[in-house]
Structures are given as C-alpha cells and as structure tokens.
Amino acid sequence: MPELPEVETIAYNLRPALTGKIILSSDLLWKRTLAVPSPRAFSRRIRGQKIDGVGRRGKFLFLTLTGYTLLIHLRMSGDLLAILGGYQRARHDRLILKLTEDTTFVFSDPRKFGRVWLVSDPQEVLGRLGPEPLGDEFTPDWLITQLKSCRQRLKPLLVDQEFLAGLGNIYTDEALHASKLHPLRKASDISLGQAGDLWQAIRMVLEDGIRKNGASIDWVYRGGDYQNQFRVYGRQGQPCPVCGNKIEKIFVAQRGTHFCPACQRLEG
User: For residue 1, what pLDDT is reported?
Assistant: First the structure.
C-alpha cells in the first residue's frame, strides 16, 4: 500500500497534467471502485467539472473540482495515470475520465481494493484523520501529550490513521529504528526525550522518502528509490546498518514488523 511519500509523489507528477482540464465523460468499469455516490449520480455530477488542483491528505489523493472533491485511496494495488493522446483500455482499468486537451485520467487497480469518492465536502471522508506528520500541527509537544494518554503499543498506534495520517508499515518501521524504539513499547512509557527523537525520525524518513520519490517495492509502483536506503523494512536476516546485528521480523497487530533487537531494545 502506498504511504505518504508515494501518494505525495503521485500527486506531484499528476498536478501539471490534470490542473485546468475539464472532465468530459466518465467510464466506471468496476462498480465497487466507487464508494459514493451511485454510478448514475457520479456520471452526471462529474461531467463538466474543472480540475482546479491535485493534492494529498494522509494516504488519500484528491482532485479539487469546481463543485466537488474527487477522493481516491489506492489501497493495495491502485495506480493513477494521466495519458496524453489516444488511450486503449487496459485489463485492470477501473475508472476512466476523459478530459479536455486529449487527456485521459485512469485509475487502474489489479486487486480491486481501491476506492473513489465524489463528495461536496471532503471532510465527510477525511474528517477522522489525524494530523499530517509534516504539518504544523504535528509538534513534539503534541506527540508527547498524545503518547502519554495512550497505553497502546507504538507500532499499531503509529499506523492508525486516526492518530497520525500517512504512516504505514514501511515508514513506521524506519522511524522506530531511527529513534531506537521497539515497536512493542507502550506509548505511555515513552520519555520526553524519546518522544522528541521519534518526532524527528518520523519527519526525517518521510522527507527522505519524498526526496527519493517514494519506495518502489511492488510491480505496481514505478520510479521510487527510497527502498535502496531502508534501514530495517524488508531486511530480515540482514545486518543492521548501525550495529551489524541481524534484523528480525515479527507480527504486531497482524502487521509484519521489522526491527533490530540490539538497537531497539524492549525496555521493561
């Protein structure tokens, strides 16, 4: 599943190709791709809408339209393409939007888990998300206050989108290693200094990920390079880049989790 850096990269790449174009027609090829509204209402409402901007909130990509917002969550295998010139339908296409200037916007999704919403108020979908980890609201003081009030383990807490928007398995594992915190540590046990280290590590790995255009770890995603500087994610059995001990993989809340048992000791 793409996380914040991957979705940010996709939004950045789509912005010049889509902004200012007008949607001429839509072709919904897999009905369950559309969360809301009904397919008939979607076709009627989206026709004639101008794309005023392309952005990201958490793991959601959104198009700001004249009268609506089009929200897209890629889930496990979703991909988005803006194609100039003639386009022939491909096997895994789920939604196709024909735009002005001979442009086609395509949502492709082999595993069919991705979803699309067309809403008047994006807060209907985004309202429960936590703060952006690269935004002004996410401060060391905010983080320590939230951690001290929660007895949950760090790994499942950090991937909870209602706690913090945009982190998934990759960048959570990387941030925990960079801050030397075990994924099973209780959030409420974190000291002030450790919270500061975690805040800094989260921002560092996300900013590095964006600079590297995200991580390409699946055949679906293209062009990312951050996978070449993973500290722990996907490196079980390989040496830790800090201490040389073998990286281990465990399952925390049913999520594969990578860490160094020497650098990230489970205190208490």
Answer: 73
Report pLDDT digits (tens) over 215-242. Answer: 987 655 667 899 999 999 999 999 999 9
pLDDT(41) > 80: yes
The answer to whether position 268 is within a domain reads: no
- Domain with residue 203: its CATH number is 1.10.8.50
Catalytically active residues are 2-3, 59, 255
Please state, in angstroms and rounded to a whole number, the distance separating the CA atoms of residues 260 and 242.
9
Distances (CA, A) of 179 to 5, 154, 200, 203: 19, 12, 8, 11
What is the average pLDDT score of the chain?
Answer: 96
Q: Are 133 and 200 in contact (CB under 8 A)?
A: no
Residue 135 maps to a domain? no
Q: 62: Cβ–Cβ under 8 A, 6 or more apart, which residues?
A: 54, 55, 56, 69, 70, 71, 72, 122
Domain membership of residue 28 as a residue range: 4-126
Q: What is the largest CA-CA distance in the chain?
A: 62
Tokens of 12: 């950045």
The Cα-based distances of 148 to 119, 153, 224 in angstroms read 36, 12, 35
The pLDDT of residue 219: 53
pTM above 0.90, yes or no: yes
The answer to the question of residue 243 being in a domain is yes
Average pLDDT over residues 22-42: 98
Pair 246, 176 in one domain: yes
Residues 226 and 234 sit within 8 Å (Cβ to Cβ): no
Q: DSSP strand E in 49-91: where?
A: 51-57, 60-65, 69-73, 79-84
Percent with pLDDT over 70 in the chain = 98
Give me 260's structure tokens: 């160094």
The count of domains in the chain is 2
